[in-house]
Every structure is written in C-alpha cells, then in structure tokens.
Amino acid sequence: MGNKQTIFTDEQLDAYQVRDSLVCIFTFFLHCSLHGRYHELAPHLVPMDYTNDPDVKVPLALIVNMPELKENPFRNRIVESFSEDGQGNLSFNDFVDMFSVLSEMAPRELKAIYAFKIYDFNVDNYICKEDLEKTLNRLTKEELTPEEVNLVCEKAIEEADLDGDNKLSFADFENMISRAPDFLR
Amino acid sequence: MEIDAEYDSGSDVDSKRRAKGKNKPKPAARGKKAKADSVEESEEEEEEAPRKRKGRKKKEESEEESEEEQKGRRKKAAGSKKRAVKKDDSEEESEEEKGNKRKGGKKGASRKEKEEENNKEKKGNGKAAGKGGKDKQDDKDKKKNKGKNSSGSSSDDNSEDESMSEGEMARLKEEVEEKKKLIVTLRNKPWRMKRRLKCLKEAQAFVEKFEGALGKGKGRRLYAFKVMMTKVLMGMPYGSIARKTVPRDEQDSAMDFSVLFEFGVICYCLIWIKLLTFLQGYCKYSIMFYGYYNNQRSIGLLQFRLPLSYLLVGVGIFGYSLMVVIRTMARNANEGGDGAEEGAFTFSWKLFTSWDYLIGNPETADNKFASTTTSFKESIVDEQENLKDENIHLRRFLRVIANILILCCLGGSGYLIYYVVKRSQEFAKKDRNELTWLQKNEVEIVMSLLGLVCPPLFEVISELEEYHPRIALKWQLARIFALFLGNLYTFLFALFDEVNAKLDNEKEIKNETIWALKEYYDNYTLHHNVTENIPPPNISPADVIRGPCWETEVGIEFVKLTVSDIQVTYLTILIGDFLRAVIVRFLNYCWCWDLEAGFPSYGEFDISGNVLGLIFNQGMIWMGAFYAPGLVGINVLRLLSSMYYQCWAVMSCNVPHERVFKASRSNNFYMGLLLLVLFLSLMPVIYSIMTLPPSFDCGPFSGKDQMYDVIMETIEKDLPPFMADIFSYASNPGLIMPAVLLMVLAIYYLNAVSKAYQNSNMDLKRKMQMQRDEEKNRRNNKDSTNQVMKDLEDLLPNKSLIPPPSAEETEKPADQLSKSPKVTGKPGAAATGKGVNVKKDVSLAAANPRAPVTRPPGPRPPGPLPGIARGPLPGQGMGRGRGGPPPRR
C-alpha cells in the first residue's frame, strides 16, 4: 500500500494505531492491508479514498467468502456479531474491529466477550440450549444423532451453568472458557 | 446486534435497556484484569453508561433544543450555587472554581465535541469529587461543577492558569493519567469501533490539552514518534494477515494428527540414538559383526584399545538410551502436570473451543470436523459408559473367555516360534546348500507372520469384552506387547540353547586346534632340531580350523530378523494399503457395491500398532547391537526410508482411524513401554556378557575367560598402580554395600517426597473443586439471599415510614435545605475534612432520625434509598458514624 495517504488521512490512521499503542506499527500494516482486503471484497462498493469516512457497508455474503472465514462453521455468526446492524453488513470500522479481535494480540478477555456473542445465536445475551445445539451441529456437520446432541448440550449446561438457570450467562461462559487450555487463540 | 439496531432508532426505554445490557458484560470481563486496573477505572466504567445514555438521548432530541434547555437549567442552578459559594467559601474553593471554568472554556473549541466534553467534564468532576472527598464537601462540589460547565461554555477566562491550586493540579494529573490508561486499554473493551474511535478522540483531545497545561508532553512526543515511525516503515507491501494465516493452517493440520506427532517424536528419538551409535560403530570398525573384530589390545599410533572400547560402547549404548528415555519421560511428566481441572468442563470446552478459527483450508476443515465429531463421540461414549449397567455376569464371563483365548494365542505363538527355532537348528546341521530359502529363513518369516496375524485376531477377540474403547485400546496394546515380547524371548531362549550347543562344539574345536598346534610344534622340533624361535605355522587364514563363533551367529540371527521385519512391513504397506487403495479407488467405478464406503474401504492408519512396531524394532536393535554393530546402520537406513515411505502411504492411501482414542493423555504410555523393552532387551545382553565365555578364536575378546576381563586388563596394565588400588577398594563389598544402601535410602526419600507432593496436589485439586461447588451454590442461592436482604431492609424503620416513590421528591427539598445553611446533605462525602460543618446541622438530623448506613463512603448517584440521601447520621450528629453497626432501635 504505497499510496496510503490517499486512502486515509494521517489522523485516521493515528486513531486506529493508538488504539493498539503497544503494537502500533504492527497494527498499521495490518490496517493498510486490511483496507486492501476490504476493498477487494467489493471493489465496486468500497472507495479507495477513505479520507472523509464514507458510509460504506459490505454485505455478509461477500465477507464470509474471505479465505479466513470460508471454512469456519460460525462464519455467519462472526460477521453478524461484529456488524453494527446485526445483519452482517460490515462497515470498515467493523471490519477492522473483527480482525483486531480475531488477531493473536487481542487479549483473552476481549475474545471471550466476542466468543460469547458469536455463540449466542439468538442474541438474548444468554447461551441457551438452542444455541448450544446450533453450535454443536455446526461443529460436527450434523453428524450426531439428536439424542447425542441433546446429551452433549445438557452436559455442557450442567457443567458450566453456575447460577442454575439452565442457560449460560456471560459470567458462566467466561468462568468456563478462561480455564480452557485450548482457549489461547 | 439486534439490540443495537433497535437502540439506534429507538425510544428512550430501549436506550436504557441497552445501556444496561451493554454494561453487563463489562464488570465480569474486567474482573479478570483487576490487577491491572485500579479503582478509578472501574468507577469510570460505571459512569460510562449514564454518559452514553445521555449522549444518545441528546441525539434523539433536536440538538439545539436540548442544548438550550440544558444550558438554561444549568445556568439557573449555577447562579444560585455560585452565589452561595462566593459568599462563604474559602479562597481555595474559589480558586478551584476558576480552574474548572478554565477547563470548561478551553473545551468549547469544537462544536461537535462540546457536548461530549461537557458530559465528560461532569463525569470527571463527579469522580474527582468522590476522590477529593477528603478536603471538600461533596455535594457542593458537584453542584458547583454542574454550574461551571454551563458558565464555562459561556465565559472564557483562560488567564488564570497559574493560579491553579495544588489539589487542582493533582486532580487534573490524575484525570490525564486516567485518560491515558483509557487510551491504552481501549482496545480491550468490547465496544463498537465507532464508539471506540469516539472515545479515543475525546480522550486524546483531553490528554493533549491538559498534558500541555501540566507541562509534561511526554505522551505527545511519543505519539509523534509513533506517527513518524509508521511513516518510515510503511513501504512494506503486505500486512501480517496473509503471511500469518497460511503457515498456521499447516500447523493446525499437523496438530490434528497430534498422535502422529507423537509417533514422529519417538521415531526421531530412535533415529538419533541409532545415528550416534552407528557413527561410533561405523567410524571405528566398519564391519557388521562381532566376529570380525580381533583381539589386538591396541591399534595404531593412538593406541586405540579396540576390545575395551567395544565393550564400553556396547554397554554405553544401554546407559545412553536409558538416560534419553528417562529424561524424555520426566519432561513429559512435567508437561502433563497441568490437567488440574480436567473433567470439570469436558463438554463445554469441546463445544466452545474445539474449532480452530485459523483454519482456512477445506481439507483441514474436513479433518477438523471429523476429529471434533470423533472427540464428541468419545466423550458421549465415556458418559454413557458411566451410566450403563448391564448383565455384569455375562460380561465377566465373556471377558474371562476372551482372556483365555488370547492366552491360547500367545502360548501357541510362543510354541510355534520355539518349534521353528529348534527346527532351524536341525537344518543348520545339514549342508547349507541343500536347504531351500524357506527353510533357511523359517524363523524370521514365522515371527513376522505372527506379528501380522495376531493383532487383528486380538482385536476381534476383544470385541467380546465390551470394554470402554480407551481401556480396550490399552488391553489391545498390552496384548500385542506381550505377544512380541513372548516371541522375542522364546526366540532368545532357543538361541541360548543353540549357543550352548555351539559352546560345547567350540570346546572340541579348541582342543583340536591346541592339539594340532602342539603336534605342529612337536614335528617342527623333530625335523629341524630347534627348540626356540619356532615360526608360527604358515597355514593360510582361510584354512585355519575355526570355532563356530556363537556371537556372530547370534548377530546374524538378529540381522535376519530385522531385515525380514523390514520386508514384511514394507510389503504390508505396499499390498495391504496401496494395492487395496488402488483397487478400491478404481474398481469402484464398475462394482456392484460401494467399495469406498462398504466392505474393503481404505486401510486405516493404525497409530498405536505402528508405534508398538517401532518400539519392538528398537528392542531388537538393543539386543542385537552388541553382537552385530552393523545392525544399527541397517536400522538407521530403515527408519529413514520408512519415515518417508509411510508418510507417503498415509497421505495417499490411508484414512484416519475411525475412532481415535489416545492411549493416554501424556506420551508417557509409549515411553514407558519403550523403557520396559529397553530393560528386557538389556537383560539377556548383560547376562551373556557376564556369564558366557567368549569364543576363543573370534571377536575382540577371544582368548579371555570372560568379556569383562578386558577392563581388568586395562586397569592393571594401562593405568597407574594407584588407580588399580582405587578400583580394588571400590570393588570391595564393604564399599559397595553402603553405596547400595545409600541409593536405597535416596530412592526411599525421593519416593516419600513425591508422594507428599502428590498428596498436596490432590488436596489442592479438591480445594479447587470445593471452591467451585461453593461458588455454584452461592450463585444458586443469590436470589434467595437477596430476598432475605430485601426483607431485612423492608423491616428497617425509616423504610416502613416513607415509601420508596416519595424518596426522590423528598430529596430535592433536602438538598435545597442543605444548600441554604451551607451544609451538605450527603454524609457520604462528609466523612473527613470539612465534615465538621455537619455537626451544626440539627434540623436535618431531626427530619430523618434513623438512617442506617449500608454503603461505603464515596460519590453517590441519587439513589432510591431515601435514608441515605436524607442526611447525616442521627442522634450523635457525628459525620463519621459509618462503619459502625447500623442503629436498630
């Protein structure tokens, strides 16, 4: 991105960077290439000139085809939970947001929050049994029998539900996920 | 998200709900970073919501209108307050007011920002007031601030910078620090990017303004530096995403085969051991077998002591291998020690953390799906296994039968091998030319075939037992292990029989040779009449009568075994996997059923079986290496080639095992097997070195009674005499016994220590579990306990007197009341410092005689609890009554 000045004003860039003041330079590259990526998604929609904050949104269908998300069973949920309108249309800010949260450098707490949002399919701030079933079916490509799915979901709720309301609140979720050995990403 | 959308367009009610909802995850999330964030931060967090709400609300109304309205309201309040303040407050306070004015004025710069700034100002001041409670009366402060905001926007007086008081400076600094912290931690907040940017802008503006004012522009400079740096470095074409993702994918696909990785590690380990030993063997003596080395005490200029080094290397290999295996095991044990909470969240973890968000390759994704499904199935089976109880007698019976069957198999295979070895000894007596290839290699072929046939047989038998798959796998491995070991040992015993026979044979030959030599000398003296300087008989070396050299024979047996093992393995892969895959793949087009999904299908890669094979191969090397040093070289080649060969086979014509059950969580299961094999293969070798006399005419130890005589010889001849003394003392039983005792004691002590650690570990685990349960219970009971608390509160006298709805109404008059006599209505801030004033306020105390203090001191939003908002503590009229028990009369 040699022609970065034409895409963003310095001010805009600074704003994005200082957000990650520890890793600002890194973010800068991320960010420049991110705009490239964003532009690639919908060349006809996204202008190359971002100096005056155009109000552009790229629809979900285009975003889920990114190689990073293409194979992800939760791709729709990811995009939806990062989009401001909840429909999966991402503005550039949302887009950067998504990548910054999914990046390695994002702290675990933040990831936990967004993971919770992603798994919360019906957006009621609780992960209830239907959410779990959906999660499981996406994870296994629906190869488990309904009884097995039921068993797994019940066990999962039983394990993680601390307040006994048969659904996982964020506190439950965080408590559980923060101890997971695999939750480092 | 839905709520957001609603909110953006929505009504006031919605906005409130949203603000609440948004705020909700925060405290929990923040709890984790409590160490990093100080109290101020969390305060700020709490205040974030109302601020946001207000900002949003304003947006909804027409902008100007709201502005006007608010200004008006504020001005009114400010006016009255200002008057009051100016009249009686101290110099310090007026100064502060000016400072605040200045702040407000400065901020009026941009129209757009102003609104936010005002809000922030309010927030900041509120906070500051809370903190500054020690030297100021809270209520007044707050009101002043409110007033100042409005007046600040209207009146510009920048000229009073210098007159800032110390307290003001400190407060400002604090605020600036807070903002900075906010900037740093902003990225950790689960907000929308838009909100973050806005927040960032505000904070930056604030910091910039006031850092300058406070005379420390370090942040600014840093900031400029950052910008510069990024400009310098921006020439690079690509970001990190593309570069990062792809290798990660590969790594992850590798992780899917984490068991394979295990396999690879062992492979690698073995190759290293072998390479080392092989190099030693190869560089110094490049010949395959024991018998080719001669017994010259030292060779060449460097006086290389071949027999000694042969023995030392032979024994040293064992020592080195033992060390490597044990060290690896220790490392694994350390790594595997973190499974503290295993089992607590099995299903939840699998549900939420099993997908790898970095997977971008369809094939990897498929594998991941499959492995996730398997792991779920595994857990489900685990779970169901716990619940299942069936006809236990039938199952026991079946298990007994299965074990009997397997014992029969093992016994049969052992007998078969013994029989074959015996037969081969008979064959060996015959002329080698008469024997067919089959007869010559019977032993090896039978052993390899047994290794090929028995494991599947065991698997079939184990179907009877209906063990849990993981346990079944362990049984299976143990049985295969027993089979191999049994075979190997039968083979060894048969070999020892042969060796003994050879030793007898050798004695005869030795006598014959000695006889022949004696005759030769006799004849020589007879013919030449010379009794001294008799030249040695000039028989060509090929014609010398030789002993059977049992060591070489043993070595040859092992080499044959290894080679046939290689052949069988390779052929199995070629036929059993490759050919099968080819047939299944291409015949599928013209077959009556689906070959890929149906009967033959593709071969499964049997990880545990392969690992076991490797382990036994290694055992054979350990056993044979002493008698056939070249075996090590053969095996290095074999392992290297088979690594690539099997890799190709796995990738091209195998499918993953249908049910992947790891034998154990840590890799120590296989390492333990390896150790056992090492020990078992070490025994016969050491036994033969220590007890069997070496052949008299071949090998480095020829002519000695025992192999270890070389060491004695070296000690006697090559080392200075005092060393010999030392060794003789060291070998004294009087010294050895204490040493052994010491070792036993050490083992005992270490064992006790490790037991103690284990106990404390268990204790800690139990405590954690208890804590978790407790937490669960507490959360479960929260509602009920809350209810109790509520009931208690309801029982309080003033609550019963004044119903909650009237609380807010009564608050206002109270405030006004407090204003006129210049006394704060809020005891919360009156704790220290100027709280003296409170004492005078008698009227308020009378108005609300009994008010329990239920909260700690601090800034307080106008709350629903009327008692607190009402006034200072009753009766005593002491401003610092809180902390004591609430009065209950």
TrEMBL record, chain A:
Its main location: membrane. Residues 107-142, 148-183 form the EF-hand domain. It is found in: Cell membrane, Sarcolemma; Cell projection, Cilium, Photoreceptor outer segment; Cell projection, Stereocilium; Cytoplasm. PROSITE patterns: EF_HAND_1, EF_HAND_2. This is Calcium and integrin-binding family member 2. Signal peptide: none annotated. Keywords: Calcium, Cell membrane, Cell projection, Cytoplasm, Magnesium, Membrane, Metal-binding, Repeat. PANTHER family: CALCIUM AND INTEGRIN BINDING FAMILY MEMBER 2, CALCIUM AND INTEGRIN-BINDING FAMILY MEMBER 2. GO terms for cellular component: cytoplasm; photoreceptor inner segment; photoreceptor outer segment; sarcolemma; stereocilium. Pfam families: EF-hand_7. One of its GO terms (molecular function) is magnesium ion binding. InterPro entries: CIBP, EF-hand-dom_pair, EF_Hand_1_Ca_BS, EF_hand_dom. One of its GO terms (biological process) is calcium ion homeostasis. It comes from the Eukaryota.
From TrEMBL, chain B:
Residues 1-173, 768-889 are annotated as: Disordered. It is a multi-pass membrane protein. It is found in: Membrane. The chain crosses the membrane at residues 223-241, 261-283, 304-326, 397-421, 477-496, 620-640, 669-690, 735-757. Residues 549-664 form the TMC domain. Its main location: membrane. It comes from the Eukaryota. Residues 1-11, 39-48 have a biased composition (Acidic residues). Residues 110-124, 132-142, 768-782 have a biased composition (Basic and acidic residues). Residues 17-33, 72-85, 100-109 have a biased composition (Basic residues). Keywords: Membrane, Transmembrane, Transmembrane helix. The keyword Nucleus does not apply. InterPro entries: TMC, TMC_dom. GO terms for biological process: detection of mechanical stimulus involved in sensory perception of sound; vestibular reflex. GO terms for molecular function: mechanosensitive monoatomic ion channel activity. Residues 874-883 have a biased composition (Gly residues). Residues 854-865 have a biased composition (Pro residues). Residues 822-836 have a biased composition (Low complexity). GO terms for cellular component: plasma membrane. Belongs to the TMC family. This is Transmembrane channel-like protein.
